[in-house]
Design goal:
CATH topology: Rossmann fold
Protein name: PIN domain-containing protein
Largest sheet: 2 strands, parallel
CATH superfamily: 5'-nuclease
Organism: Mucilaginibacter gotjawali
Shape: globular
Number of helices: 5
Radius of gyration: 14 Å
Order of helices and strands: HEHHEHHEE
Helix content: 40-55%
Amino acid sequence: MEIMHSIIDDIPKISVITKIEVLRFNTTPESYRILQDFVSESIILDLNGIVVDNTISICKSRKIKLPDAIIAATAFVNDITLITRNISDFKGINGLKLLNPWDLPAKQA
């Protein structure tokens, strides 16, 4: 999670869907602990009517998986940058701010 701390100066905000996606995989106990720590340090953004309405609009305007549409709508409604390695899943959603942390220049020692 060091990469997250290097690009987020504030408390991370994540969709409730992101929490589910991150913690649902069977992984090593150490990896799970790291992910659980990240989630517990984050603000969890729940679904609400505005996010639901934006999710519906996104789904009607493009082919996208429902969890991705919810994550995108959550970021858009809360005016936060969506940090993802899968930029292509979200490109073309009007007004959505995207950042791929793997595209950032490496820190100089």
